[in-house]
## 1
Amino acid sequence: MTALGDIGGARSLYVELVAYGAGDVFNRHIFACAMTIAAGEPDRALTEALGLDGRRLADLCALHFPYGRALLPAFDLEAGTGEDAIEEPDLRQLLLEHRTRGVIEEEWLAAIVARRSLRPNHLWQDLGLFNRTDLSRLLDRHFEPLARRNIQDMKWKKFFYRELCRRDGVLVCKAPVCDVCSDYHHCFSDEEGEPLARLQPVPLRA
Ligand code: SF4
C-alpha cells in the first residue's frame, strides 16, 4: 500500500484503485473516481450506483483495475442496474451517438454519466471527479462532437437536458437569447465546489 493510501488509518479507495490499476492513465482516473463515490453510497448496490450491470462492471475491472474486485463492495455478475429514470436511456443514447473513439470505455461512461446525472450535485461532483475540468476533459475526449456544441460553457447537466429537449422539440428556454434570460444563473453560474469522493475509504468487507 502507498503512503498516500492512508487516511487517518483508513485506506483511500481512489488511491488504491489508481495505484494498482492498468491502462490509460486518464481513463483509470475517471473510472476510479466514479467507483469511489459510488462505493460510498450504502443504500444501494455498486452496480445501481454506477448504472453498470455486474458483467460490465467486471469487464471494467478486468481492463483497468485487476485488483479492483478485492477492493470494491462485492457485486454479483448477474447484478442489474435497477430501474432507469425516465430520462436516463435518452441521455445514454445522446452520449453514445456522439462518442469519439468507439471504444468500450465510452459505453461504460455513457451509462455512468447518465446514472450519476440523476444525483443532486454538480455532475463533476457526483461523478466523484476532482474538479469540473476533469469532466470537461472526459467529455472532450470521449464525446467530443457533443461537448463541442456547448460553446457557451453551460453547466454540463443543464446542457445535456437542453439538448434532449431540443431534440424532442420541447421549448425549454424562457428567452430567445441567454443574455436576457431570467434563468441565466441556473444555466451558467460556475460549478464550483469541493470534490465529494476523493478520500472515500476502502469499504470494509465482512
Ligand atoms: S439561460 Fe435561458 S435561454 Fe439560455 S439556455 Fe438557459 S434557459 Fe435557455
## 2
Amino acid sequence: MKKTILELKDIAKYFPGIKALDNVDFTIRTGEVHALIGENGAGKSTLVKIMTGVYQPTKGKILMEGSEVHFGTAHDAQAAGVAAIHQEASMFTELTVTENIFMGHHLRKKGGTLDWKAMRQHTQELLDRLELDINPDTLIKNLGTAQRHMVEIAKALSVDAQLVIMDEPTSALSLHEVEELYKIIRQLKDEGKAIVFISHKFDEIFEICDYFTVFRDGQYIGEGEVATSSVDEIVKMMVGRSLGHMFPKKEAAIGEAVLDVKGLSLPGFFKNVSFTLHKGEILGFFGLVGAGRSEVMRTIFGIDKKSEGTIVLNGHEIHISSPRLAMQRGIAYVPEDRQEQGAILEMSLSHNITLPQIDKISPFGVLNKKTEKTITEEFGNKMEIKAANWKVNANTLSGGNQQKVVLAKWLATDPDILILDEPTKGIDVATKAAVHEFVSEMAAAGLAVILVSSELPEVLGMADRIVVMHEGHVSKVLNRDEANSDNVILAATGHEEGM
Ligand SMILES: Nc1ncnc2c1ncn2[C@@H]1O[C@H](COP(=O)(O)OP(=O)(O)OP(=O)(O)O)[C@@H](O)[C@H]1O
Ligand SMILES: [Mg+2]
C-alpha cells in the first residue's frame, strides 16, 4: 500500500529579483520513485533544499505523515528521515570517507564517546552494498569525481531515511555505476521507502521512475504515471511547446586539416592517439567514462603534458605548454566539470563570460564596461542563461545555467578550434537543442569542433566523424554514414578494433 509520506503545500521561495518557486504543491508517496522534471532554473534544486532544511520557504507548509513539520536546519530534516544527494558536491575533501559519511550523525558508544570502529564498519558495509572498491579511510581528495559521487550516495543511505532525494545523481557516473544506483533505488522502493529522482535524461526517467511532476518557471504544471505517458507529452509540459529537431545538424563543407594529432601519449591515461580535425567539421569523441577522452583534450589545451607525439596546427608543429598559449593559437576548451574548472562561482556573470578576453576588453588596463556588457548580453542571451541580471554571482544560478555560463564564455572568444567536453551535461532538453543548433551553425561557418560526449544520440546526431576510444586508445574511427549505435558501442567496449 502506498501512503503519503511528505506533502508540500502552497510553497513559495523568493530570491532577490526571482521567484524560484510559487504556489507549489508536491506529494511524495512510499514505495514509489517520483521524478521531478523541469528546465534549468525551473526550481527543482530549490525545492530539494526546502525539503531538506537547507532553505526556509518564503511561504507554505510541509507535512510529514500528516503533521506539519519545520525543518530549520539540514540536521532537522535528516533526523526526521529525509536524506538527499545534492546536485553540487558537498564533501569535505580533507576528511576520510567514513568521516564524511557520518558527518552530522555520528555513532556513539554508551558513554557518549564517538564509536569510530562502528562507523568504519558501517561505511565498509555501505561501500560493499554499492560494490565500491574504496577504503573507508581514504581522504575524499584522493577520489575521482565519480567515486566522490558514489560516496555521496553512500552517505544518503547511511541515514536510515524514509525519503531519499537524488538531485541529478547520475551526471558524474559511469554506465556501470548507474546500474548499481538503479539496483539500490529498486531495493529502497521494495523496502517501502520513497525516492525523489531528478534528471534531464528521459531514458533514466523511463527506466527507474513510476510517477512524475513537472515544474516550469517555479510553478507546478502537472503530474502523472510514467508508464502511461510519452516523452513528447512530458517535454511539452516542461517547455510549454513541442520541440523541434533535437540534432539540427547542418551539412557543412569540410575544409582543410587544421589540427593533426599523431601518436599522442600520456602514460596511465592514453596511448598513441592520432586523429585529424578539419575546418567546418564536427569530430565526435565517444567512449565510456574513463576512456581517456578528456585527458587527450586537456593535453591539447596545454593543461596536461604529453610524453610522446606531435600536434600540428595549420601545418606547423606546435608545443602548447599552457592554456594561455592554446588560447593564443585559437583553441578554446569547454571543460566537463563546471564546478572545478568552469565557472568561478564567486564572480559575476559578466566577469565570468568575458574572463578569457580580459586583455582585449581592458585596453591600458582599464576595463571597458560597455564592451563587457555587449559581449555578455550577446552570448548570455544566445545560451538562454536564466538569471536576475548579469551582475549576480554565478553561484546564484541553477546548475544547468552555470554550465551555460561556461559555454558562453568560450564561445565568446571566437576560436578557430572549439573543444567541447560533455557540453550538454545537466542541460535541459530545450537548451540542448539550442546548443546543438548553435554549434552546427558555427561549424557551417568554418569552425572546427571536437565534441566529446558520453551521450550516444548526441554524437550520432551531430558528428561528421566519430573517434571511438577504449581504455586510453583509439579503437575505431567511423564516418557519419557508417556509424550506428551498435558499431560505436562495440568499439567503445573494446569488442571491435580497427580503423
Ligand atoms: N541562492 C540563490 N540566490 C539567488 N537565486 C537563486 C539561488 N538559488 C537558486 N536561485 C534561482 O532560483 C531559480 C531556480 O533554481 P534551481 O537551482 O532550483 O533550478 P533547477 O530546476 O534545479 O535547475 P537545473 O536543472 O539547472 O539544476 C533559478 O532562477 C536560480 O537562479
Ligand atoms: Mg538543479
